Amino acid sequence: MDEIAPVRQWRVPASLPAVKLVGAVLLVALGLLFADGDPVRLVVALLAAAALAGWAVRDLVAPVRLAVDAAGLTVIHGFAGRRLLPWSTVEAIAVDRRPRLGLTSETLEIDAGNSLHLFGRYDLGASPEEVAAELRAAHPDTAG
Known about the structure:
Blueprint: E1 8-11, H1 15-34, H2 39-61, E2 64-69, E3 72-77, E4 81-86, E5 92-100, E6 103-111, E7 116-120, H3 121-124, H4 128-138
Antiparallel strand pairs: 1-2, 2-3, 3-4, 5-6, 6-7
């Protein structure tokens, strides 16, 4: 009988949605404080707060961004959907490093032929380099 490898998941850190919701509340407060009767300023602050709150809701509804098992990779798709990428469709797993403002950002790139999936440190709750190493080790064509 074949043994199925356990699923490994990477998710948004638990504190991140809370930080985004606090930011949304602060935007509303700042909009009310600095609107000075100008409805445009208030509307802009409310729209920015709504976008930030929507982003936080996504983190709460679909915290798992990436999972791996023997069948392949499961990635987030759309707002909160999931999509299975069978191992046969995964063409490359790479980490892109780019210097920005004196800091280096890392992005995990999963090339599945017709689709490219990108994940940052805050999507995964871990270093993209560490996740890439685990994914490569789990890939049946490269696993030893």
